[in-house]
Amino acid sequence: MVTVVGLGFVGLTTALGFAEYGHKVYGIEANLERFGTILGGKLPFLEPGLDEALLRHLGNNFIPTTDWDEAIKNSEYVYYCVGTPYGEDGQADLSFLYGAIEQTLAAIRDDKFRVLVTKSTIPPSTTERRLIPFLQDHGVKVPDQMGIANNPEFLREGHCWDDFIHADRIVLGVSDQRSEQMLKELYQKSNVPAYCVSLNTGEFIKYLSNTSLACLISYANEMSLAADAIGGIDIAAAFRILHMDKRWQSGSIRSYFYPGCGYGGYCLPKDTNAFYAVTKSAGFDGKILKQVIETNDAMPEKTAERIIRVAGHDKNVCIGVLGLSFNPGSDDTRDAPSAKIIKELNRKGYNNIVAYDPVAMEEFQKFYQLQYICKKNCQQVLDDAEILVIATAWPEFKNLRNETSKPIVDCRYML
Ligand SMILES: NC(=O)c1ccc[n+]([C@@H]2O[C@H](COP(=O)([O-])OP(=O)(O)OC[C@H]3O[C@@H](n4cnc5c(N)ncnc54)[C@H](O)[C@@H]3O)[C@@H](O)[C@H]2O)c1
Questions:
Q1: Using omega within 30 degrees of 0 as the cis cutoff, is the peptide bond preceding 143 cis?
Q2: Ligand 1, atom 13: nearest CA belongs to which residue?
Q3: Which fold has domain 2-197?
Q4: How does pLDDT run across 166-207, given as a tens digit for each residue?
Q5: Residue 75 neighbours by CB under 8 Å, 6+ apart
Q6: Cβ–Cβ under 8 Å, residues 227 and 235
Q7: How far, in Å, are 56, 259, 297, 330, 332 from residue 303 at the CA level?
Q8: What distance in angstroms lies between residue 8's CA and the mean position of ligand 1's atoms?
Q9: pLDDT classification of 45: cutoffs 50, 70, 90
């Protein structure tokens, strides 16, 4: 049996994924509102496919619970899928992880061998230098009494279920044979190749992945700024024609080498910063990574300047922002570029802003205190605004040029 701690995008997907493989899974969630929603058979966020998996497994293979003692007593695997948000100086904040491990240890009443697995994104060397000493300080003998491993997750929000079930690879960062064997058994039914690597390598692979994607995005954005400065360049056409080269054609990686208004969401911003912080404390100053972060940090201001070039200097002009979620297909607004752009416009005195998103309006209003008014649909924004800004590439904005003659700032180069 498996206990999954933290039922967010990653944890709920992981719990239901293991349930789909036929395992019995307990799900523990500290946020009682989120817990109640899941217990009632509903998703707390938008994720196609995950809703059906929840209905299939709830009360069968998947048991949401608040009873740590029962869950831990019965489980051989404890998976941590809690948040690892921005901490001090850009470092990953591990307090949720430590808290969840402490709750696990408090619930252990026997000497059964269990493996504790971190699926949350944690910087390379965290397991070796911080988690193992943390367990040892609590009197746990690793790995004789308990195993510890990491199993980073690569899913994309909006595609969580599909990316988990049809993963390209499973990465298992392990240092003892018993845990390795147990983890291989856990994934036996998945038909996805599993690669066992050292603890540090497992953690590193996740950051290698996210920083590489961030690097592609920042370079594409830098090129778009350079093209803008030169003038007379059709940026969208240039990138689309670049992608016709055979070498770019084998997959969705193209979507990362495409300009926009900066990467956002829960992972890329915090993970690039956390990795930069950990490398600096290891005595290495990665110049490219530093520039990737700086380029991204500059994008909201550059984008606001681009919008103001079209809006003009009358600060009462009504600006319509289309798209608030960080990516199409998701209602997640954490670190969304749209929020940074609105904030930047507000800072420059442009407060007459109307906004619309197909799914993320409620989330956005919960998270951000900014000067703007939400509209019920796209048409209301088209009616009220004098200029339009596409901040998220939702398919419903694709035909905007046929729906309005008002000026459009296409921050996603989608038209
Ligand atoms: N969201 C993604 O696309 C994605 C992809 C890959 C990896 N990750 C990583 O996975 C981790 C989780 O990300 P997420 O997006 O699922 O986060 P999330 O914020 O949606 O979910 C984390 C959940 O953990 C719960 N939690 C925290 N402490 C707890 C405790 N002690 N007991 C029970 N529940 C607890 C929180 O209430 C929250 O619901 C992060 O490290 C993230 O970087 C995220």
A1: yes
A2: 83
A3: Rossmann fold (3.40.50)
A4: 999 999 999 999 999 999 999 999 999 999 999 999 999 999
A5: 1, 2, 3, 26, 114
A6: yes
A7: 44, 11, 11, 22, 21
A8: 5
A9: very high
Domains 2-197 and 206-410 share a fold: yes
From ligand 1's centre to the CA of 407, what distance in Å?
Answer: 40
Say if residues 41 and 58 touch (Cβ distance below 8 Å).
Answer: yes
Q: What is the pTM of this model?
A: 0.94
Q: What are phi and psi of 374, to 5 degrees?
A: -80, 140
Q: So where are the chain's domains?
A: 2-197, 206-410
What CA–CA distance (Å, rounded) separates 295 from 359? 29
CA distances from 345 to 90, 142, 312, 407 (A): 25, 53, 12, 17
Nearest to 57 by CA among 75, 46, 41, 33: 41
Closest CA relative to residue 78, chosen from 131, 157, 32: 131
Q: Is residue 357 classed as helix, strand or coil in its secondary structure?
A: coil
CATH number attached to the domain at 206-410: 3.40.50.720
Task: Read off the tokens for 361.
Answer: 């309006």
- What pLDDT score does 249 carry? 84
Interior/surface letters 351-364, b for 16+ CB within 10 angstroms, e for the rest = bbbbbbbbbbbebb
Bridge partners of 388, per DSSP, are 320, 408
- CA 133, 138, 143, 148 dihedral sign is negative
- State both tokens at 74: 């019965």
CB-CB contact of 114 with 120 (8 Å): no
CB under 6 Å to ligand 1: residues?
Answer: 5-11, 28-31, 34, 81-84, 96, 99-100, 103, 120-121, 153, 155, 157, 266-267
Please state, in angstroms and rounded to a whole number, the distance separating the CA atoms of residues 11 and 360: 21
Token pair listed for 188: 């036996």
Q: Sorting pLDDT into bands at 50, 70 and 90, what band is 247? A: confident
- Which atom of ligand 1 lies at the shortest distance from residue 100's CA? 31
Angstrom distance (rounded) from CA 394 to CA 28: 33
- Element holding 263 (H helix, E strand): none
The pLDDT, as a whole number, for residue 89 is 86
CA angle 133, 139, 140 (to 5 degrees): 75
Cα 239 to ligand 1 centre (Å): 34
Q: Output the CA 176–ligand 1 centroid distance in Å.
A: 26
